[in-house]
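Lecture notes, unit on protein representations.

Consider one protein chain, 86 amino acids long.
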Amino acid sequence: MSNKKKEIMEKLKKAILSLELKPGTIVSETSLSERFNLSRTPIRDILKQLSMQGYIDIYPKKGNIVSYIDLESVEQSFFVESNPAV
């Protein structure tokens, strides 16, 4: 995965974990493509990766929705980020 795709994926993860993108929010490939100035194919790849990690639910022909994530995984994520030596 390219550095730009990794960077965008991390930004989206952070937005989801900080509730900037709230659970149940529809995430449009087109709007992300415009926002990050990237074609829809790499955006689709990023969304697939986020789906495999449990951050996004993909519904074919309907859209992509921010997943409802459990608070324990969020706490663990923030703990790991704030303690990189762990």
